[in-house]
Structures are given as structure tokens and as C-alpha cells.
Design brief:
Layout (H helix, E strand, L loop, with lengths): L7 H11 L2 E5 L5 E6 L2 H4 L20 H11 L9 E5 L7 E9 L6 E7 L1 H37 L3 E6 L5 E4 L1 H5 L22 H14 L3 E5 L8 E10 L2 E10 L9 H13 L4 E6 L4 E4 L1 H7 L20 H14 L1 E10 L5 E11 L5 E8 L1 H7 L5 H11 L7 H23 L4 H8 L3 H10 L5 H5 L3
Antiparallel strand pairs: 1-2, 1-5, 3-4, 4-5, 6-7, 6-10, 8-9, 9-10, 11-12, 11-15, 13-14, 14-15
Helix pairs in contact: 12-13
């Protein structure tokens, strides 16, 4: 390429445009001038390098490379040899720069031309991090595969892994091979329906289709080829990248109906609690919900446990902290609470009347179990009858008919009901008048006025709140 005689200014612009950094060196490797154009390179404060040796600007492991490049440039070899050296930065990691050295004239001056390699170094770091992440994932998958094989082969149940599209058996454990009388006849690779007697093959196909359609565990009764008796077949579906797969379990007929082990009993107990006609919820010591059954979610109008998990139970009580305080006080003193009447706030914004029974669970950490019964319909039916004590009071009031105007009789009834409500609130809150006032929807001053009217508190206590 013939460029003609370039001026010094044109040559400087050419170098600045083509390279990220250029160093003009004398015969001893001392920097006479510096040209830089990238922000990363300018962050090195390379203009202060003038008068310093090139060796003093690089890290210790790069000094040998600098010496080799300076020595090679003094020879007759005109091929450029690019070498990567690192410049130490005041903040962050070192800046990698790829240099080539040119001899300028017979006076021994050199021109070191550099390219910023930070972007390539960042890609290299990302590549290393990605490789390490892949290695960790691969090791984790190997551990999972090992655990899977151990569980798969050591289980007492016969298990088949079936492809959801072709119905071919992909894997089978040793317990499943026991069902095959001819041990030389392998299960893997066969159509799963061919593993059963012809009379049951349509039933097996229907079972798999039903499991695929519903996503639930489906069960049927079938007979394996060559077996002397029927077995219980259960199928559940799951998805992998290649599509749906079935996990088919084979149990001798009748085993499912006889849960004798502690684990089976625990499973039955958990299932009974989950499908209980009464609501159930467990909380920790702070009242934060940890689990709930389907009936409670139906009461509150929530669609998933995640809408309840981690929330305080008092958020769903109409009287909030007052009711929670009463429940907590009784649980700590008696460990059991029965038939505590309150109301729950549901998702739609309405309220329902409930009765709560609770107990303290004896575990390593304090947990509380709450059994919640919907009494909304019962309360509506029992509204005309307030209780045994109410009946006797009404009977006494009925004797006043004809002796007093009806308006005065009604006033006596209202006073009697107010007094009974206040007494019940004080009993529930263990004489905590602030909580009782909140439970009754009264201010503390109004409660004390009523207490004084019914002679349930002294005048001195009433005057103390003013």
C-alpha cells in the first residue's frame, strides 16, 4: 500500500484511529509520548507515564513479555508478534492490552501499538463461569440420578416408567421384573399393554388416558401376563422435555386396602385432616399461618394455600388482635381452647360466624392447631333463643306485662342484654377492659359508663380515665 509521505500529524491520527493505545519508546524503553482513545485505557492515567520505563507500568508477570518484545524488535525480523500484557489499575481488576512493537528509525526508537482486550477478557471470564456452572449442574444431576436409581431399584413396589406417546416401557425396576415369570423376557422396550393379559389391555389403555386427561393418580385392577392373580395398577403422569411420561405402580391386589405400617396410618390421618368437614389451620408462635386444609380455604374464599401461607391468622379475624390475644392467652395458660365464638373475614369482604377450638402442639417449636367450624346457619336458627339464662330473664320480664308499659319492658330487656354482653366480653378477655371495649365496639369511656350504670365498677375507676 503506497500512502506517500505522511506528515507527522497525519501519522499520529492514523495510529490513534487504528489502535487503542500507542507508546513512543526510546532505545532504553523509556516512554516519550502516549496516545490513547478509549475510556478504559484513559482510566489508567497513562499520560503520567511519560518519562517512565514501560516495564514500570505493567504487572510483575508481564515484565518478561515486555523485555522479550523490546529485544525482538531490535532484530531483522519484520513480522509483528502480538503479546498480551496487563496494566495495573487503581480500582478493579487489571486491564489486559495486546501489544506489538515496531522499530521506527536508526536512533533506536520504538512504537508499541496496543489493543484493549478487556471485552475479550470479560467474555473469557463469562466462559469460565459458565463452564463452572455447567460442571456444578452436571454434578448435581449425577447425584440426583444416583439417588433416583437407588430409590428405584431398592423399593419394594414394582414400578414402570412408560412413554406417554408410544406407551413403550422406558425403565423398570427389579421388583417389576418379578411379575414376569420368564426372567429372560425383558420389560424395557415393550408396549406396556402387552405386559398384561389380553382381557385387561383395554382397561390399561383407558387408565393411562384418564391419568393423562385429569393429571391425577388413577387406579384399576388388572392381571400381569402369566401371573396367577390380579394386581392393583396405579398411573400418574408427569412431563419431561420429550413429552408426557407415566409412572405405573404394580401392587398385589389388596395391599392398598390394608395400611398397617405407621407411615400408611400417618398418610390416612393426613388425608382425613385435609378432607375434614371442619376447617383446620396451624400457625407458629407468632400466629403466622403454616398450613390449612381445603375446607378452611373454601370458608375464606381463597383458591390456593399460597394466599394464606405466611400471613398472620389475626388478619382473617373480624376483631383482629383482640380475638387473637384472647386465644393466645388461653392457649398459653390452658394449652386448649374450646368453642370460642368469633367471626372470620372472607375474600369477598363479608363475614361468617365460626367457633374455634385450638390446642398447643408439643413439638420442638411452639405450634398451634386451630379447628374452625362454620356456625353461620346454626346461629341464624338459634337467634330467637339466646340461652338458658336468657329464658329465665324473659320469663321474669313477661310477668311485668300489664303492670308496666311495653316501652319500659323493652328498656329493661335492652339493659339486661347489654349487661350480659359486657359480662361475656370481660370473661373472654379475662377482665381486660380495653380488649372488651374493642370486642363490643365501644370506646373505653363508654364501656366504663355502662359498667358504672350496672354497678360493675367503682366511681373511682371511672374517674381515672378522664
Amino acid at each position: 500500500m503506497k500512502l506517500g509521505n505522511l506528515t507527522e500529524d497525519a501519522f499520529a491520527r492514523l495510529v490513534r484511529a487504528a489502535f487503542d493505545i500507542a507508546l513512543l519508546l526510546d532505545n532504553d524503553g523509556v516512554i516519550e509520548d502516549v496516545s490513547a482513545r478509549k475510556a478504559d485505557v484513559l482510566a489508567l492515567d497513562c499520560q503520567t507515564w511519560v518519562g517512565r520505563t514501560w516495564l514500570s507500568t505493567v504487572t510483575s508477570e508481564s515484565r518478561v513479555k515486555v523485555q522479550e518484545m523490546l529485544a525482538a524488535s531490535q532484530g531483522a525480523d519484520e513480522d509483528l508478534r502480538w503479546r498480551q500484557v496487563n496494566h495495573a489499575m487503581s480500582k478493579g481488576s487489571d486491564l489486559p492490552v495486546q501489544y506489538a512493537v515496531l522499530k521506527l528509525d536508526d536512533q533506536g526508537r520504538f512504537l508499541a501499538l496496543g489493543r484493549d482486550m478487556e471485552s475479550i477478557a470479560a467474555l473469557q471470564r463469562r466462559l469460565i463461569e459458565t463452564q463452572q456452572s455447567i460442571e456444578r449442574d452436571y454434578l448435581r444431576l449425577r447425584h440426583i440420578e444416583t439417588k433416583y436409581r437407588i430409590l428405584f431399584e431398592t423399593g419394594n413396589e414394582a414400578v414402570l416408567l412408560v412413554d406417554g406417546l408410544s406407551f413403550r416401557v422406558l425403565d423398570a425396576n427389579s421388583s417389576a421384573q418379578v411379575f414376569v415369570k420368564d426372567n429372560h423376557k425383558k420389560l424395557v422396550g415393550r408396549d406396556v399393554t402387552e405386559c398384561f393379559e389380553p382381557a385387561y389391555r383395554d382397561e390399561i389403555q383407558s387408565l393411562l388416558r384418564m391419568a393423562h386427561a385429569t393429571g391425577r393418580i388413577e387406579m384399576c385392577r388388572a392381571r400381569f401376563v402369566g401371573a396367577s392373580g390380579d394386581c392393583t395398577v396405579s398411573a400418574s403422569v408427569f412431563r419431561q422435555e420429550s413429552g408426557p411420561h407415566f409412572l405405573v405402580r404394580l401392587l398385589p391386589h389388596g395391599i392398598v386396602a390394608r395400611p398397617t405400617s405407621a407411615a400408611d396410618q400417618q398418610l390416612l390421618f393426613s388425608e382425613a385432616l385435609e378432607h375434614s368437614p371442619d376447617g383446620f389451620v396451624s400457625t407458629d408462635r407468632a400466629g403466622v399461618i403454616k398450613s390449612a386444609n381445603a375446607e378452611l380455604m373454601t370458608m375464606l374464599g381463597v383458591t390456593a394455600l399460597s394466599q394464606l401461607y405466611g400471613q398472620p391468622l389475626e388478619n382473617w379475624l373480624v376483631r383482629g388482635g383482640v380475638d387473637w390475644g384472647v386465644l393466645l392467652t388461653n392457649l398459653r395458660s390452658q394449652t386448649v381452647v374450646k368453642d370460642f365464638a368469633t367471626e372470620l373475614r372472607v375474600m369477598a369482604g363479608s363475614t361468617i360466624a365460626v367457633e374455634i377450638s385450638a390446642l398447643t402442639l408439643n413439638t420442638d417449636q411452639a405450634y398451634y392447631a386451630f379447628y374452625i367450624r362454620d356456625v353461620e346457619r346454626t346461629r341464624v336458627k338459634e337467634t330467637p333463643v339466646a340461652g338458658a339464662s336468657m329464658v329465665s330473664s324473659v320469663a321474669e320480664l313477661s310477668k311485668l306485662v300489664g303492670r308496666m308499659p311495653m316501652r319500659d319492658i323493652v328498656g329493661e330487656t335492652v339493659d339486661m342484654i347489654e349487661k350480659m354482653c359486657i359480662q361475656s366480653a370481660l370473661e373472654l378477655t379475662r377482665n381486660n377492659r380495653a380488649s372488651a371495649a374493642e370486642m363490643l365496639g365501644l370506646s373505653r369511656q363508654s364501656l366504663y359508663v355502662k359498667l358504672r350504670r350496672f354497678e360493675m365498677v367503682s366511681d373511682m375507676e371511672v374517674s381515672s380515665i378522664h
